[in-house]
């Protein structure tokens, strides 16, 4: 029973990264490039486990959350005193960008099967998320999110299995890394939608009160399951064979597998959007609280006006996009790319913190093997981020030149 509760708790991480961004980016990758980008999902899942374990280890061993550890390391009269504020601002903006995509994706899922006003649906979803967040209970929220992740997983994996993908081609895509022409933004998005920067701070907060073994076990199961669901979405996307639109994907699945497949897509997309619409504002509030020095203070408790003001601001940002009727897919993909660029910054400072003996002691710091693995992941994230910046700059120059 205790292990089941632990899985439900860590399912918050899976709920956070499997949002409409994951659905859109993975489906787009499958639609445009088949199984060629599956390796990016495998890399992202492994990277997520490694980085989340490090963030959780800080809390378990020191009692301080990741944001608090970074603030203590870099704040004060040092030349790096700007680091906590930069991370708080960047991750707050990243959560807001994600939130816009979360609510737009949830609304798009409902509209696949019900013809209602997008503005009305966005407002209703936003009100539902606000009601759960207002409880101030992380455990209660975790239980709700665990149920949503289960529904989402069944919907997407069942659809992917019914499509009967070519196992050999899928295995080749998983084990042979390559970046086809025109896929840079999608690769960056696949990494950014799985190794979500704000999840590092959220996961660190969830590890409070856990034992190291329990934390690692629950984390690996939750993230591994999330990676499997993401792969299922990529397989579903291959049914389109070029281009992505939710309505067309639903129609294609309905034609190939029957009307039940269209309902599965709708349910999965809604569950992904609504669960992430809860976690993004919550993670923003937790991150800001720890990085600005509010952790452990009454005025920053889960029911305090300051804490609620942060998550409410992020939530209203997303509702605003939904009420405005913005097209969801471009917003969602850009949000993933933005977070893919933000990830290297968070990963570098996490890596440095994991080698701070004054904080973690000799037994808590990374071993040589952990440093090598984490170093490869951080360098890969930096390389992808730089490639994404180069691609964005080239696109901007082309627009200016045209």
Protein architecture, described:
- With 402 residues, the chain is mainly alpha-helical.
- The chain is 81% helix and 0% strand.
- It has helices at residues 2-17, 20-33, 38-62, 66-74, 83-111, 118-134, 138-162, 167-175, 184-194, 197-206, 212-237, 246-257, 259-291, 305-324, 328-353, 357-364, 368-401.
- Helix 2 runs antiparallel to helix 9, helix 3 crosses helix 17 (368-401) and helix 15 (328-353) packs antiparallel against helix 17 (368-401).
- The mean pLDDT is 79.
Distance between the termini: 62 Å
Q: Ranges with pLDDT <50 over ≥5 residues?
A: none
Oligomeric nature of the chains: single chain
Number of separate strands: 0
Number of helices: 17
How would you describe the shape? Answer: globular
Major β-sheet annotation: none
SSE series: HHHHHHHHHHHHHHHHH
Class by SSE composition:
mainly alpha
Strand content: under 5%
Q: Residue share in helices?
A: over 70%
Query: What would the average pLDDT be, to the nearest integer?
Result: 79
The gyration radius over C-alpha positions equals: 20 Å
């Amino acid at each position: 029973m205790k292990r089941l509760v632990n899985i439900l708790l860590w399912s918050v991480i899976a709920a956070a990264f499997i949002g409409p961004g994951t659905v859109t980016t993975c489906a787009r990758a499958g639609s445009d490039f088949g199984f060629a980008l599956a390796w990016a999902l495998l890399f992202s899942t492994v990277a997520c486990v490694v980085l989340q374990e490090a963030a959780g280890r800080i809390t378990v061993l020191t009692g301080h959350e990741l944001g608090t550890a970074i603030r203590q390391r870099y704040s004060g009269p040092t030349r790096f005193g700007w680091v906590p504020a930069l991370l708080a601002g960047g991750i707050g903006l990243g959560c807001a960008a994600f939130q816009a995509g979360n609510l737009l994706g949830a609304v798009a899922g409902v509209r696949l099967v019900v013809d209602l006003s997008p503005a009305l649906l966005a407002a209703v979803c936003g009100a539902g998320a606000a009601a759960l967040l207002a409880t101030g209970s992380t455990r209660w929220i975790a239980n709700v999110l665990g149920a949503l992740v289960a529904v989402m997983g069944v919907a997407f994996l069942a659809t992917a299995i019914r499509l009967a993908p070519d196992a050999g081609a899928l295995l080749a895509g998983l084990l042979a890394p390559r970046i086809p022409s025109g896929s840079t933004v999608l690769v960056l998005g696949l990494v950014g939608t799985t190794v979500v920067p704000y999840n590092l701070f959220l996961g660190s907060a969830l590890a409070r009160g856990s034992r190291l073994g329990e934390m690692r076990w629950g984390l690996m199961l939750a993230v591994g399951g999330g990676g499997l669901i993401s792969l299922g979405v990529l397989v579903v996307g291959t049914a389109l064979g070029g281009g992505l639109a939710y309505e067309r994907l639903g129609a294609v699945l309905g034609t190939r597998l029957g009307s039940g497949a269209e309902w599965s897509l709708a349910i999965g997309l809604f569950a992904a959007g609504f669960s992430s619409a809860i976690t993004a504002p919550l993670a923003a509030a937790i991150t800001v609280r720890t990085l600005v020095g509010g952790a452990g203070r009454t005025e920053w408790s889960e029911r305090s006006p300051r804490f609620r003001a942060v998550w409410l601001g992020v939530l209203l940002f997303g509702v605003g996009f939904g009420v405005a009727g913005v097209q969801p897919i471009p917003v969602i993909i850009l949000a993933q790319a933005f977070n893919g660029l933000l990830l290297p910054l968070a990963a570098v400072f996490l890596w440095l913190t994991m080698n701070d003996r004054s904080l973690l002691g000799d037994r808590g710091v990374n071993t040589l093997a952990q440093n090598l693995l984490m170093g490869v992941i951080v360098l890969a994230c930096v390389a992808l981020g730089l490639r994404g910046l180069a691609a964005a700059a080239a696109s901007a120059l082309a627009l200016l030149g045209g």
